[in-house]
Structure formats: C-alpha cells, structure tokens
Amino acid sequence: MSGSGKTTVSRGLMALFVSKGYVVQPFKCGPDYIDTKFHAAVCGRPSVNLDTFMASPEHVREVYDCYSEGADIRVVEGMMGLFDGYDRDKGSSSEIARVIGLPIVLVVDARSAAYSMAALLSGFVNFRKDINIAGVIFNKVGSQRHFAMLQQVCDDLHIECFGYLPKSKDLDQGSRYLGLDFSHSSDSDSLVSLLETHVDWKKLLTL
Q1: How far apart, in whole angstroms, are the C-alpha atoms of residue 185 and residue 55?
Q2: In 3D, which of 145, 87, 109, 116 has the Cα closest to residue 5?
Q3: Which helix (H) or strand (E) holds 78?
Q4: What three-state secondary structure class fits 152?
Q5: What is the mean pLDDT of residues 98-120?
Q6: d(CA 120, CA 124)
Q7: What whole-number distance in Å separates Cα of residue 64 and Cα of residue 68?
Q8: Measuring CA to CA, which residue among 112, 122, 166, 160 is closest to residue 143?
Q9: What pTM, to 2 d.p., does this model score?
Q10: Cβ atoms < 10 Å from Cβ of 42
Q11: Burial of 144 by CB count in 10 Å (0-12 exposed, 13-18 middle, 19+ buried)?
C-alpha cells in the first residue's frame, strides 16, 4: 500500500547498487513525476514512467527495453498497492510486472504485526498466478526478535525473505510528505548502510 516504504527501499537499493559500481536504470510505475527526479539524482540516468493507462502494453515493453540498454540492473518502483489500478488491477503495478515479465519484491510495513503477516502474504501470493512474486522485504521492523517472527512466516509460506529495514530515527528525520528526502547525503548514506546490513542485496541481483 502507499506508505509501506516502497520509495524508501527502491531508491535506497538504487543508491546501494550505484555505490557498488553497477549501472542502474530506474523506472516508475504510473505517471508519477516526483519519484523519477529522485531516481535520476541517485542513478545518473533518466527515470522513465511505465504506464499502461496512457500507453499500450507493446509500447511499455519497447520503452522498458530501450532505456534498459547499457544498464547492469533495472529497478522498477511500484505505486500504491500492488493490485491498485484505475479499474480493479488495470494499470496497476501488477499489470506492468505481468506485461514486462518482472519479478516482484513486496515491501511490507511490519509495524505491530507478527504472524498475522501470514494471512496478508498468503493473499498476495495466491491472488493471481500469472505474476511472479519473488519475495518480500519488511519495513519498520522493531527488533531482531520481531524479524525472526517474520522470517518464520516466510518459512511457513515458502516465500523468499530478502531482509528488512529496522525502525530508524534517521529515516524518520529524512522523510517528508512526498517520501524520503535525498537532498542530504547523510540521509542517503544512512539508508544505504541499513540496507547493506539488513538486506541480502546480492540475492536480489539474481532475480
């Protein structure tokens, strides 16, 4: 859903991959023009909108392939909830993933929840069989014990857990009404450090 941390995780991973020397091509689902500016600042390449409301599936695939040339990694940030579109799931992130054939990594706000996450994740994974949900990254995790409980959920459902972002005052201070503020290098550095520590980014590269 909106506010789950998709933008934080997406832009943080872009910055992490760039810091490792990879050429990263960013994309954004839907007509959003704000996140794309932050993507471009992090990656040094223009971020491109993928929108099946205003463009045909064929055009979206052509745009994706064209801008992906010369990139080592492609990161597509979703919008709203995975299945939220202009008409049911039409125009949603799930439709764009289906059109292009992208693996999906769910970003889930795990505040104040533990094994109830099993019902939530099971619903997402089993709702449609024509998309590939590759795994999950949990956001706002309270402790190692909390993360262990969330890992148990993934183990029981046979869902890949790529890691988590802990609750962090640094990230809270770097937030604003339109998402994470990358205007201060310290905010970006803090996020990259947290992702490198708590997320298996090398496994993400295998998707």
Answers
A1: 36
A2: 109
A3: none
A4: helix
A5: 96
A6: 7
A7: 6
A8: 166
A9: 0.92
A10: 25
A11: exposed
CA atoms within 13 A on the CB side of 132: 9
Strands 132-141, 24-29: pairing kind: unpaired
Task: Write the DSSP assignment of 33-70 as a string of letters.
Answer: SSHHHHHHHHHSS--EEE-TTTS-HHHHHHHHHHHHTT
With residues binned 3-state (H G I as helix, E B as strand, rest as coil), the percentages for the chain, rounded to 5, are 45, 20, 35
The one-letter code for the residue type at 51 is: D
**What pLDDT digit, counting tens, does each position of 25-66 carry?**
999 999 988 889 999 999 999 999 999 999 999 999 999 999
Give yes or no for a contact between 73 and 42, defined as CB atoms under 8 angstroms apart.
Answer: no
β-sheet bridge partners, residue 137: 107, 163
